[in-house]
């Protein structure tokens, strides 16, 4: 049994499976992938968590916290880029784990990604609802409290959160071309708003607000990095679109790295201007620090524009995260680890429509009816764990298969992957203990599902049992080296 749970799949097997049922439409290039990455990354982090991290953890040294988080993500991104170019298949880290480490670790990563995307989408939808209600109130429109809050908070349903997730699911079902177009428009708007904030705020920076620069010491800086790590989550969603990319060997690494570089520059600039405009302790009283800073210096119209930008930013995050989760479910189903329902490709739209619809329903129920507490930390720990496994997989596959063709190579292996593992491990350690315990419980539930369903329904196991005679020499070969016989 031990050997079977660590059975691997070859890259050729994965690629051959992408051609089943005609495959999905290939539409995306480097620009579209970069915009998808920015769409997923720039959102809650820049419009909400900057204030939280500055007031409670980092102070003006928030800039350093962003750099530390960027280093962790940058090392991991280089590892993702190597795999994305080598294995241009939907599923992201799940697929990479299957190739290098085997089915068991692939399941662990896939289960992590389900946690990451589901909690992130639900949380962001609730934040979207809050900004939306605030804009309506400024226009003189007030929705009944019963329709804007979860039952736990005294309402009936958070209707705006449910409706935006329904719209997102519809767009994703229609196809990557439509999703990409909508995302590009939204990203253009929110980048313009961020540029507006920097232009207005720069002239109001007071250097005295940066003193003391590190009020909570280095421990506060690292704790702040573990919190605002949420701001970088999303670049990995770029790799989930692999089967819908025209030239994945070139475009995927470029899209991953470019989106991370652009967002890091934006985050550093915004955090420097933000903490220079207003004393960092004042951000304890607001959940919208960027708009708050503009109001504090008299730009009320600018604050309103930022609120619109925040709505756009959160919408694009919802779009790309929901897109990513549906693709992870799709490829796990195609491998037999989840029911076939998730692996269906729509005959007209060439998208995993059922997975997209189910993601929409589940996240809408969660966002509409449940209070979400500490979900940012849960999202962070799931992602950090996936980053560690992918980084380890790069080192292992370089040893196991050094001659494998690699269109993009992570530099300085094993140093860069090792740094990714160390950085991500430190950030996990800095998260609250209760978050770590909840994550362990989530993993135990996932293991129960794997051994109760996935292990016995694995397509690779069924295929090899039916095509390789028992006791033959071929049966003892490395499974990753055997050719696929089709499903």
Task: Please explain how this structure is put together.
The protein is mostly helical. Helix content is 67%, strand content 0%. The protein has a single domain, classed as Up-down Bundle (Amino acid/polyamine transporter I), CATH 1.20.1740.10. Helix 6 runs antiparallel to helix 7. The longest helix has 36 residues, at 103-138. The chain is globular, with a radius of gyration of 22 Å. The chain starts with a helix and ends in a 20-residue tail after the last helix.
Tally of discrete structural domains: 1
Q: Distance between the terminal alpha carbons, to the nearest Å?
A: 23 Å
What do we call the CATH homologous superfamily? Amino acid/polyamine transporter I
Mean pLDDT level = 82
Task: Output the CATH topology.
Answer: Amino acid/polyamine transporter I
Q: What is the succession of H and E elements?
A: HHHHHHHHHHHHHHHHHH
Structural class: mainly alpha
Q: Which regions have little confidence, pLDDT < 50, spanning 5+ residues?
A: 468-487
Question: How many individual β-strands?
Answer: 0
Task: Provide the β-strand percentage band.
Answer: under 5%
Count of alpha/pi helices: 18
CATH domain class:
Mainly Alpha
* Shape estimate: globular
- Biggest beta sheet summary: none
Helix coverage percent: 55-70%
CATH architecture: Up-down Bundle
- Roughly how many Å is the radius of gyration? 22 Å
Write a concise synopsis of the structure shown:
Its main location: membrane. With 487 residues, this protein is mostly helical.
């Amino acid at each position: 049994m031990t050997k079977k749970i660590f059975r691997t799949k070859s890259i050729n097997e994965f690629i051959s499976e992408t051609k089943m049922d005609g495959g999905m439409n290939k539409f995306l290039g480097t620009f579209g992938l970069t915009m998808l990455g920015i769409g997923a990354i720039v959102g809650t982090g820049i419009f909400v968590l900057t204030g939280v991290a500055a007031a409670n953890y980092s102070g003006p040294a928030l800039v350093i916290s962003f750099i530390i988080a960027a280093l962790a993500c940058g090392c991991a991104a280089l590892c993702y880029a190597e795999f994305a170019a080598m294995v241009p298949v939907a599923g992201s880290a799940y697929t990479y784990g299957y190739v290098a480490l085997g089915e068991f670790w692939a399941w662990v990563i896939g289960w992590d990604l389900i946690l990451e995307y589901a909690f992130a989408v639900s949380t962001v939808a609730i934040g979207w609802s809050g900004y939306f209600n605030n804009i309506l109130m400024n226009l003189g429109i007030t929705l009944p409290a019963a329709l804007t809050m979860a039952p736990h908070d005294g309402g009936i349903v958070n209707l705006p959160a449910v409706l935006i997730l329904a719209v997102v699911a519809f767009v994703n079902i229609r196809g990557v071309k439509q999703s990409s177009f909508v995302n590009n428009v939204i990203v253009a708007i929110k980048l313009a708003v961020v540029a507006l904030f920097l232009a207005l705020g720069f002239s109001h920076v007071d250097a005295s607000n940066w003193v003391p620069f590190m009020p909570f010491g280095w421990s506060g800086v690292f704790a702040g990095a573990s919190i605002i790590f949420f701001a970088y989550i999303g670049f990995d969603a770029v790799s989930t679109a692999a089967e819908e990319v025209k030239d994945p060997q070139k475009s995927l690494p470029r899209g991953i790295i470019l989106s991370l570089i652009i967002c890091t520059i934006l985050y550093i600039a915004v955090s420097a201007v933000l903490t220079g405009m207003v004393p960092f302790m004042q951000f304890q009283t607001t959940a919208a620090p960027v708009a708050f800073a503009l109001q504090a210096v008299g730009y009320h119209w600018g604050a309103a524009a930022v609120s619109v930008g925040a709505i756009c930013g959160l919408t694009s995050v919802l779009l790309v995260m929901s897109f990513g989760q549906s693709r992870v479910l799709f490829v796990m189903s195609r491998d037999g680890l989840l029911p076939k329902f998730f692996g269906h490709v729509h005959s007209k739209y060439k998208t995993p429509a059922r997975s997209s619809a189910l993601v929409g329903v589940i996240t809408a129920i969660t966002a509409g009816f449940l209070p979400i507490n500490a979900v940012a930390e849960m999202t962070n720990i799931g992602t950090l764990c996936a980053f560690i496994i992918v980084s380890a997989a790069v080192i292992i596959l370089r040893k196991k298969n050094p001659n494998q063709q690699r269109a993009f190579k992570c530099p300085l292996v094993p140093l860069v992957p090792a740094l990714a593992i160390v950085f991500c491990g430190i950030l996990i350690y800095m998260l609250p203990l209760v978050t770590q315990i909840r994550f362990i419980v989530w993993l135990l539930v996932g293991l129960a599902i794997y051994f109760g369903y996935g292990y016995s329904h694995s397509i690779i196991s069924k295929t090899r049992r039916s095509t390789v005679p028992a006791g033959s020499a071929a049966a003892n070969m490395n499974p990753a080296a055997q050719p696929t016989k089709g499903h």
